[in-house]
Amino acid sequence: MKENSINRRQFLGTAGTAVAGAMLINPVESFASLKRSGKSKVALVGTGIRGTTFWGKNLVTNYSDILEFVGLCDINPGRLEFARNYMGVSCKVYTDFDEMLKKAKPDIVIVTTVDATHHEFIIKGLKYGADVITEKPMTTDEIKCQAILDAEKESGRKLKVGFNYRYSHLATAIK
């Protein structure tokens, strides 16, 4: 009788591919059941390359039938204008996150800022009443992590952590 065995590396590679694939198919699908009537209103904080390409432009191109960007936020006004033009959106831009939450009233906040600041925007977004999608790492230490978990529990909103799966066995082999 042949034994069907799989080692830890194979298991993690296979499981990671499945999870990442599901996220790449539709990164906002996990919030579909939480969606309010009409299109989901999305705000992005952090308009660097990851924010504008992987999230921004991709969502505008593939999911504009179910969502619309209502605000972009960054501390760099030049990067904000570039992001708005590159993504092809006409939403307002903000250098103040709190102002964006109050005026744009997003259903979903996407956080793609510097890793050490993720917790600030996640917590504020959840407390405001939005669902939040953030890039990995969710945060940088256990104290910030606990504060995020507490805010999620208190707010009743949902937090999802995105993972850019670029070092798969296939991608590595191709390189």
Question: Can you put this structure into words, describing what you see?
Answer:
The chain has helices at 8-25, 49-63, 77-87, 97-104, 118-128, 142-155, 169-174, and strands at 40-45, 67-73, 92-94, 108-111, 131-135, 159-162. Residues 14-25 have low confidence and may be disordered. A six-stranded parallel β-sheet has the order 3-2-1-4-5-6, sandwiched between helices. The radius of gyration is 18 Å and the shape is globular. By secondary structure, it is of the alpha/beta class. 47% of the residues lie in helices and 17% in strands. The relative contact order is 0.15.
The outline comes out as globular
Q: Beta fraction of the residues?
A: 15-25%
- Total count of helical runs of at least 4 residues: 7
The helix content, as a percent range, equals 40-55%
Mean pLDDT: 84
- Flag low-confidence runs: 14-25
Count of strand segments: 6
Give the N-terminus to C-terminus distance in angstroms. Answer: 38 Å
The order of strands across the largest sheet is: 3-2-1-4-5-6
Radius of gyration: 18 Å
Which structural class best describes the helix and strand composition?
alpha/beta
Oligomer: single chain
Largest beta-sheet characterization: 6 strands, parallel
H-E order: HEHEHEHEHEHEH
